[in-house]
Amino acid sequence: MARAALQDGRSASGAEEEDAAAILARLASRASCRAFDGSPIEPAELEAIVTDGLQAPSSCNQQNWHFVLVSDQGRKDRAREIAGGNPHFSDCAALVYLCFQKGWTHGNFSIVQSVAGACYHMMLSAHLRGWRCIWNAGIGDHGALREMLGLPPTFEVQGALAIGKPLPDAPPMKAPRRPPAEVMSWETFDRPAHAIYPAKPADAYPFFAIRNDDNPYAEWNPARWTWAQVADFRGYSVWAKSPLAGVYVSRRQGDALAREHALLPELAPGAEAIEVMPWGGTTTAELVRRLPGVRLTVAELSEHNVTFIRERLRQEGLGEAVRFAVMAEGRLPMEDGVADLVVLPQVLEHAPDPLRLLDEAARVLRSGGRLVASVRNADSAYGAHWRAVESRAQVPNQGPFTPLHAAAVRGWVAERFAIEAQQGLGRGAVGDAAPMTGDDLLAGRLWAVRARRG
Predict the structure, then answer these.
(1) Which structural domains are found in the chain, ordered by start?
(2) Candidate from 32-36, 248-252, 370-374 with smallest mean pLDDT
(3) Which of 217, 356, 377, 446 is deepest in the core (most CB within 10 A)?
(4) Are the beta carbons of 160 and 89 closer than 8 angstroms?
(5) Nearby residues of 383 by Cβ (< 8 Å), 6 or more positions away
């Protein structure tokens, strides 16, 4: 391209800038993939990709990294088993385990930075060669990985790079990137308030006192977040998984959701329904199936959530069935009295102001319209588990939440609606969705209700 540019009378520097822009645009089109078709990769090409990664800089040029290439199907299946929630480990062409030698240049994570730089160089190499990748920090039990990889005790495994060819219907989009003005500033730190998430007040936040499973500074209480912060967090974190069909669904969740949806009223074709803040679209897909002919609108906090749910529904063959609206400050962008049904699927516990959401549901419902809502119950075995275990960890990707007292929520609903049916779900802390009735109604892991607006 540069030679042709010179013949056209343009300067060499201008031509080189054009070349650079084209290269950078192609590199920027790289997108993560979790849906691979199982195509194999030639050993020589995989080695070439990893060799390209060796051109990355390393701390003190010591290159104390090591990369274990895994393409054997049995080993990939074992890697998936160890990782738990990474089915793409079995379906990719190969895994590259990213390792480093412990004991050198640990200050400021320099060896970790070195391995990360090499990994990204490999991802760009794979992208330019027509492959798709995803880097995974969630690789499972390190002890089991050490055994599988024969890793000596002086080496640490940092993550795994999955490389493969995408399925024909793999999500085609790249996860959203923040506007540059949000993540860069000149001379001193300056970042918009909505993009800085709350932490519990402390004199200091020592790095090594914070772990995924034990974060004493994690602020789970949504009342201490603004609506804009919740929207920002959920809008970017939802992309921690690709919008594939069936993601975020377990058998337990599916059983509970089916019982929640059993509370849905009969609606005539053309009726108007609104689902509020479903996050990844799992409940949306089931609502579409349960309410054929109903005009469903999803109200979400972030346009990024909307983009994710659109693709999720497209993956499930439901792409044209739903309309979308973006809400701000917890207010639904609809006129008064326009809906026959409002669904709040485990949403109130995520809201900075749950009473506002209930007021908004009452406002947009027609007389005789129904509310169907569910909440995680603080007065349950799960509530005790949340306080003792879950809430000690980092805030989950679906955003901050605090289980609510089912009796209190029932009172909030009764102040605004006439309760028609209610149920408790899940006797144990985790793992079941058993119906709870009678005296145990308010002791289930979840409490769900159908109520009518007068």
Answers:
(1) 30-164 (3.40.109.10), 251-452 (3.40.50.150)
(2) 248-252
(3) 377
(4) yes
(5) 376, 377, 403
Report the distance separating Cα 335 and Cα 92, nearest Å. Answer: 48
> How many CB atoms lie under 10 A from the CB of residue 345?
23
List the structure tokens of 143. 């002890």
Say if CB 398 and CB 350 are below 8 A apart.
Answer: yes
pLDDT at 266: 95
How do residues 307-343 score in pLDDT, each as one tens digit?
999 999 999 999 788 999 999 999 999 999 999 999 9
Query: What is the C-alpha separation between 417 and 362, in angstroms, rounded?
Result: 8
Phi and psi torsions of 87, nearest 5° = -60, -25
Q: How far is 195 from 182, CA to CA, in rounded Å?
A: 7
In the 8-state DSSP scheme, what is residue 108? G
Residue 362, pLDDT > 80, answer yes
CA 268 vs. chain centroid, Å, equals 34
Residue 10 exposed, middle or buried by CB count within 10 Å (0-12, 13-18, 19+): middle
Closest CA to 394 of 211, 208, 198, 195: 211
For 42-86, what is each residue's pLDDT tens digit? 999 999 999 999 999 999 899 999 999 999 999 999 999 999 878
Question: Please, which pLDDT band fits residue 132 given cuts at 50, 70 and 90?
Answer: very high
pLDDT at 103: 81
Radius of gyration of the chain (CA): 25
Model confidence at 7, pLDDT cuts 50, 70, 90, reads: very low
Determine the pLDDT at residue 12.
54
| Cα–Cα distance measured from residue 161 to residue 94, given in angstroms and rounded to the nearest whole number | 8
**Token output for 433:** 């969705």
> For the chain, how far is it from start to end, CA to CA, in angstroms?
71
Strands of the sheet with 132-136, listed across from one edge? 65-70, 94-101, 155-164, 132-136
| Strand order, beta sheet including 322-326 | 322-326, 295-300, 272-276, 339-345, 365-376, 446-452, 418-425, 435-436
